[in-house]
Amino acid sequence: MTLRLAITIPLLLASGLxxxxxxxxxxxxxxxxxxxxxxxxxxxxxxAVTVTNRFRLVAGExxxxxxxxxxxxxxxxxxxxxxxxxxxxxxxxxxxxxxTVWQGAIYAVGSGGAxxxxxxxxEDAAQSLVLSDLARAMSQHRxxxxxxxxxxxxxxxxxxxxxE
Length: 164
What we know:
Elements: H1 2-15, E1 28-32, E2 37-42, E3 51-59, E4 62-70, E5 78-83, H2 93-99, E6 100-109, E7 115-117, E8 128-131, H3 134-139, H4 143-147, E9 156-162
Antiparallel strand pairs: 1-2, 1-9, 2-3, 3-4, 4-5, 5-6, 6-7, 6-8, 8-9
């Protein structure tokens, strides 16, 4: 998997997307390397104070909702979570675990190849995103069968558009 990332990221960066440079993160659209899944960021309404970004993964016939919260010190990171059919209201740890499709750090890769952290709402969108371990986590969750995809989306997504 590491070799695949080492090969894929430079190829994605070489494609360049200057026309999308002005896109804000909350309006960004990303496609995975096989173009079978997309990440669609949406403006965060501010209702949940700890949530900094909202997005959804559209994989085949399935839409999975996601959000980002930042972890605390000593090493703050944008911590993403994709959930499917979670119960409303207060949930137990067991219920949350059952409906969590993926959780992990989200890394941004800039046009020059520098790896950083996911931009916040109002900031310029990253050229590429890495959702660490997405493919493995998704392949082990019941929601994956509902996507009707031959294989889960890869961990790397490239900026493909901007919503208006």
